[in-house]
Amino acid sequence: MDTHEVKHLFGLIGYPLGHSFSGRYFSEKFAREGFHHCRYELFPIPTIEALPDLLAQHAHLRGLNVTIPYKEQVLAFAQAGEPAVESLGAANTLVVDSSGQLWAYNTDVIGFERSLCAWLHELGVSESDFDQIQALILGTGGAAKAVSFVLRQLRISYRMVSRSATRGELIYEELTPALLQRVQLIVNTTPLGMAPHVTTIPSLPMEAIGCSHMIFDLVYNPEKTRLLAEAQQRGAHVKNGLEMLYLQAEQSWNIWRAHHRIEPLAQ
After folding, report:
1. Hey, which of 7, 13, 237, 239 would disulfide with 37, CB 3.0 to 4.6 Å?
2. For the chain, what are the domain ranges?
3. Is 29 a catalytic residue?
4. 8-106+245-260 and 109-243 share one CATH topology?
């Protein structure tokens, strides 16, 4: 039994949080790497307005991860900790400084970029060919903003798909087989297919999906969503969001640890 005093508390806010891997991931990481004075908890807050009370209740809270549906709403309570946050209008990582002020970061950007680039290279797509790729981003929330930021940086052309008509975006009813034949990369940033709603799937003309398509689903639970399973059956290359999740989690930890100068306990 671990009897070390907890001096540094971290956690995840969102609602609901039944899908999250973060609690187990960080608990195992802290035990494995000697950070026995650190703890990670899940905080399923029903509204973002509950955030100040959460901070007031936990004096040792040093940092938070942010998930659906608060990646955009949380910026009303925080200062931008990096230029990308101001550009995106979304954050998934918060630092709680010694005065209780919040600083916002977006580690989804680095997680998605590293995961996507490694995958494209595995598939034989070189960086010089990135500007030949046409992409669709399914969803327009905080995660979609991180994805669009990365695609712009990589010179990959994209269009965003929403359930309702928004200027400059497509709606699902406009995703015809002919349109999909002109697209190579599809990134799902919606929660469709996430446990426990594993039978849900974005409204795509799946009959148009084939071996020329690359489908990246940010959902990681289950590891193979209905979208990925059906796309793979049709010959598409598929990837889930688990690697991205590990990468962004490690980047969150690097930010927290550097800000608070946290070192492992001596053995």
Report:
1. 7
2. 8-106+245-260, 109-243
3. no
4. yes
